[in-house]
Amino acid sequence: MSFLAVENLVVRHGLLQAVRGVSFGVKRGETLALVGANGAGKTTLLRAIAGAHQPAAGRVLLDGADLTSVPSHRRVGMGIALVPEGRKLFVRMTVEENLLLGKTTGRPGDWSVDKVLEMFPNLKPRRHAKTGHLSGGEQQATAIGRALMSNPDVLLLDEVSLGLSPLIVDRVYAALQGLIRSGTTIILVEQDLNRALSVSDKVICMLEGRIALAADSKSVSRDEVTKAYFGLHKQKAEPA
Amino acid sequence: MSNQIIQGILLGGYYALIACGLSFMFSVMRIINLAHGSLAVFAAYALWFLASRFHIPPFLGLLIVLPVMAAIGWALQRFLLERSARGGALLPILTTFGLAIVIDNMLFQQFGADTRSLAPFIGSLSYDSWEWPGSIYVGKLAVIMFATAVVLLGGLQLFLTRTRLGRSIRATSEDPDTAGLVGVDARRANAVAAAIAMVTVGLAGAFLGMRATFDPYAGAPQLLFAFEAAVIGGAGSLWGTLIGGIVLALAQTLGAQVHPQGFLIGGHAVFLVVLFVRLSASGFGLRWLLHLPSRSAP
Amino acid sequence: MSVVPTSPMIERGTATSRIAAIAVAIVIALLAIAPQFLSAGAVDRMTALFIYVILAAMWNALAGFGGLVSVGQQVFFGLGAYFAIRLADAGLNPFLALFASGIIVGAVSWPLSLFMLRLKNGEFAIGMWVIAALTHLLVNLDRLVQGETGTSLISLNVYDASIRRVTIYWLALASMTALLAALFGLLRGSTGAAIRAIRDNEDAAASVGVRVTGTKRLLFVLAAFGIGIAGALWLATSITFQPKTYFNVQWTAYMIFMVLVGGIGTFEGAILGALVFFLIETWFGGAGVWYLIGLGATAVLFSLFLPRGLWGTIEERFGLRLLPVGYRVKLPANVADGGMIPSQQATTYQEKA
To answer: In a 10 Å sphere around its CB, with 0-12 CB exposed, 13-18 middle and 19+ buried, how is residue C283 labelled?
Structure first.
């Protein structure tokens, strides 16, 4: 029984079909990695799960309940939190204020400002700084912390390592490992294939809005994923 | 002369009161509500009606009128602005302008062309004054008005920074889509912001009625004063509104010294000069002046 | 249609539009000889209609095509009348003064545009209102105007009443025709492409090299000139000049009503809106304040529920285009029905205007 399921999801951006009939499921506590080239529809898929895009067709189910017509702010209350691509912090508000916003829905749980600051000690001295003045790593930590403050069951992470130095990325992923151990269900979009495979239980490779490959992260070969990434997996790519 | 300056500063309190709602709504929803002045006049008429018909003194009448104004603000956002804002940035201007025409003429239909005032209903407060050292007389009402503006601006500031709802409104004003993704109901935040803005409009209307006279078409000049004070002060900051109001009032006071008709001319002129200086200095649009980050098109 | 086209075809004029062009010529000719058959009152009303058409078309040029909503256009209406008074007072023939005044208003609007066009949306709208309020106050200071008491275009009284009436009628008709033709030519010409690009997406237009500010300035000055002429013509019909009447925001309210109801951003819509407004005024103008409430409420309802106005809706529904200012791409039916085009755009006719 999937905890979070997506059924035949279609999302359009104007004339463009960004997601073209995608179905998959994630079990409670599982970690799923979404990989694929730029424009493959990963971010759109994640945002549709979070409720930021209204799908043209298909359903999103959480624990069997249909979320399709539920607005994004209520999905947060139901336990889905997104760390959006590009962080999307409220730059005119402080770190603490950004974190407190995650508490808006009042969903019960033990995440608090102090706990987030413990998880990301580098934020401690920046607590009252406007997030517009933070470094990339500090911003990313704030964005993850803000999502955690809503005590989510499902955490959606969109390219958390983008634009960060390798050292910082290591630190972010160390923090994520802790979350995974604590039983949070995670779907993450990650460009770094090695990292994606090592951290996840399952991997889905997207190509032009469709699933090109869905496999077990531990058993699939890196080569196989790479092929799917470039569209060489099942069908031959047509010459342009 | 120092007497005039003090009167001018105190009058600035009124302009801050009328401007803060306009600037608040603009900073949250990016909508300039052209019915702003008309709604203030509506509130003044509502208080006048309660006072003359039911003998409810205006300060007590506020207990009825302010909740009504809040409800109007909420409904305005939900039924009018939310819908018209979906049609682009220009449509709300037309919608609220049409609304202003409806309100003005409804007031005319209901109350006629006579000018009214709330002054007869507040007893000696309308003319009482304190004597300050240097034989300066300051009207009690003007001081109350100024104090109200300071308390209101401070209260709003505290509300926006210290409460969950206030933070939700600020987050919505920065980025409504992302606000939704962290659990903020952006529609509700906007409706609450509109309700709060209309409460400030109600207060401004009350003081408009107490310190001067009003008629059904008095909304347009109030809108212009509010806009001018907000822009002079930089609509991004609440306290800037107070400074903007004071500058506007001082310019009007000075204008009145120069020429019998100089009161209004002085105000409009200082507004244009401030605008001109800022635009030439920045080379950007007003959006930049108001310290608003550009928001990508939906 | 026997052959199903497989690729989009680009059309300019349509058969309907060619018939419309001939019809327009006939209508203008008929209007020109109409005073022969109309009563004095009817001639005056028709003159008012022509002025309304000018006002609607000019406000539409600014808002519908330039994306600049102004609630201060009464400034040009008032200035048009004021400069006419001033010029006539200086000894210029009153009829000449009307047009000289329009040119001065256009000239004044140019430096104003340098400043005002840097404002956006609501700030521009209400900023123009401040300009109008200030100009009104400054005009009041002129000794000739005597404050709100006002003055008259006395020199027009030397003409016989009936000659004066018909002359003003013809001048209004000619001004309307010329302004509409100028706007039509502007929209059809090379500037028209820029105007339509700005209307659809200002940022995108700028990024592909469209001169956004220059084009907007052109529309701003044209609108000021046209509304100035309208103000001068209105002065000629009513003789008296009271600043309060001419600098009244009501004029802009009328313009907004006409354009919203007719169809913002469509050439024909403004004309239709002026006609609708004219009829409503004729029938309900006597209802006083309820008439104004009705106008405001109608404007609100149109902006909420029919933001494309009557003409925009007709055009969308029936693919009708009488005076085509743009190009249209006629999509083959199979493409239009394809799943790639979102439903709201999946009409057979894709207006590419």
So the answer is: exposed
What residue ranges define each of the domains in chain A, with the CATH number in brackets?
4-229 (3.40.50.300)
For C158, the 3-state DSSP assignment is helix
C350 confidence band (pLDDT: 50, 70, 90): very low
Are C340 and A17 an interchain contact pair (Cβ–Cβ within 8 Å)?
Answer: yes
Q: Express each pLDDT in C30-55 by its tens digit.
A: 998 888 888 888 999 999 999 999 99
Q: Are strands A154-158 and A185-189 parallel, antiparallel or unpaired?
A: parallel
- Each residue of B170-183: b (16+ CB within 10 Å) or e? bbbbbbbbbbbbbb
Number of domains in chain B: 1
Strand-pair partners of C241: C151
- For residues B249-266, give the mean pLDDT: 91
- The whole-angstrom distance between residue B207's C-alpha and the CA centroid of its chain comes to 11
Task: Kindly state the average pLDDT of the residues A207-224.
Answer: 89
- Whether B90 maps to a domain, the answer reads yes
Q: What is the mean pLDDT of residues C146-174?
A: 87
Contacts of A39 (CB under 8 A, 6+ apart): A208
Residue type, A150: S
Q: Which of residues 62-91 of C touch A (CB under 8 A)?
A: none
pLDDT digits (tens, 9 = 90+) for B150-199: 999 999 999 999 999 999 999 999 999 999 999 999 999 999 999 999 99
In this prediction, residues C233-240 reach a mean pLDDT of 91
CA gap C81, B173 in Å, rounded: 44
For B67, the domain range is 2-218
Write down the pLDDT at residue C320.
67
- Closest Cα in chain B, distance from residue A166 (Å): 27
User: Is there a contact between C296 and B101 if contact means CB atoms under 8 Å apart?
Assistant: yes
CA dihedral C292, C294, C295, C297 (to 10 degrees): 120
**Which of C197, C179, C199, C213 shows the shortest CA–CA distance to C308?**
C199
The tokens of A206 are what? 């997207």
- Kindly report the CA angle at B229 between B225 and B235, in degrees rounded to 5? 130
E strand spans, B25-177 = 116-117, 129-132, 136-139
Given a cut of 70, whether residue B278 has pLDDT beyond it is yes
Q: Exposed/middle/buried for B45, CB within 10 Å: 0-12, 13-18, 19+? A: buried
- Architecture of the CATH domain C9-352: Orthogonal Bundle (1.10)
pLDDT at B105: 95
Q: Which residues on chain A are in Cβ contact (under 8 Å) with B179? A: 73, 90, 101
Could you give the CA distance from residue C157 to residue C337 in angstroms, rounded to a whole number?
Answer: 65
Tell me the chain A residues in contact with residue C340 when contact means C-beta distances shorter than 8 Å. Answer: 15, 17
Q: Is residue B140 part of a domain?
A: yes
The pTM of the full predicted model, rounded to 2 decimals, is 0.87
Q: In angstroms, rounded to a whole number, what is the distance separating the alpha carbons of residues B203 and B58?
A: 11
Query: Domain spans of chain C?
Result: 9-352
Q: Which residues of C touch A17 (CB under 8 A)?
A: 340
Interface confidence, given as ipTM, is 0.89
| Tens of pLDDT, residues C246-270 | 999 999 999 999 999 999 888 889 9
